[in-house]
Amino acid sequence: MIKTLKTITTIELSNDCNLACRYCINRKMERAGRKRQIMSDDVFERTLDVLKELCRSGSQMEVNLNGNGESFLDPMSFY
Q: What is the rounded distance in angstroms from the CA atom of residue 49 to the CA atom of residue 69?
């Protein structure tokens, strides 16, 4: 019996953070040239479109809205 692989998707809404934890990788990413930013509404909408397709195909198991930043720094998170 072949089982369908279930996808767990992580969406990084923001890689910006208002903390400076010593163990956090964000500082290293910033030194490597990755700028701090919040995902644009357009990119978020396109991401949702892809997730809808994964759900329709039955392969989407879980969605995590996190990453290396603080998602709630985006004022649109509250709407």
A: 23
Q: What distance in Å separates the CA atoms of residue 54 and residue 4, rounded to the nearest whole number?
A: 12
Query: How many angstroms separate the first and last alpha carbons of the chain?
Result: 44
Phi, psi of 12 (to 5 degrees): -90, 100
pLDDT in tens, 17-73: 888 888 888 878 878 888 888 999 999 999 999 988 888 888 888 888 887 888 888
Query: What is the maximum span of the chain, computed from C-alpha positions, in angstroms?
Result: 49
Question: Which amino acid would we find at residue 44?
Answer: F
Q: Is 48 helix (H, G, I), strand (E, B) or coil?
A: helix
Determine the Cα–Cα distance for residues 25 and 38; give it in Å rounded to an integer.
17
Residue whose C-alpha is closest to residue 68's, from 32, 33, 26: 26
